[in-house]
Amino acid sequence: MSGFAAQVPISEEDQLRAGWYALLGQLLAGEPSEAMLRMLGGLSGDESELGEGIKALAAAARGTNVETARQEYFDLFVGLGQGELLPYASYYLTGFLNEKPLARLRGDMARLQIARADDVSEPEDHIAALCEMMAGLIKGSFGAPADLEEQRKFFDTHIGCWAPRFFEDLQAAQSAVLFMPVGTIGRVFMNIESQAFEMAA
Fold this sequence. Notes:
By secondary structure, this protein is mostly helical. Helices cover 63% and strands 0% of the residues. The chain has helices at residues 12-29, 34-41, 49-62, 66-78, 89-94, 100-112, 127-139, 148-158, 163-172, 180-200. α1 runs antiparallel to α7 and α9 (163-172) runs antiparallel to α10 (180-200). It is globular, with a radius of gyration of 16 Å. The mean pLDDT is 94.
């Protein structure tokens, strides 16, 4: 996703939130590279559920190689015909691809001045793209940082209504080894975000 970066300072908490969204987006956008596995292998976490997920991800990254990780990504999300999981809002909400949730998202993208990157062929309601958009709204990548109400509206409409189920499915997926802790991290983080938005309402 592309836009204009704003030079508006955001709180440390929001920087952290944007960082989690960006990490999930990066992990789910395409096959892992060797550099990505090295970066993941160097991560460390605390004793929280999210921290434990990060530790498990780091251990899984250290225990695999790039060929195995890429095959796993292929089996999970691409497949011969289709992968084990279909990481799209339309599919999770309607059972079909390219449905009303995608049209609704495109309307909000136009309103928020979020442009689809030219080199991306996936529909915009892919989980990686939505995480990237959310990070951009928090950081101000598409103009001024979105206020909490705008963030909540985007989250509730396009992410919170299906992504927790997707991350649970990823955590339990037959092909998931490296990506099993990604499912855990995503599930826990979505829960934290939902609770935070509820408390702020």
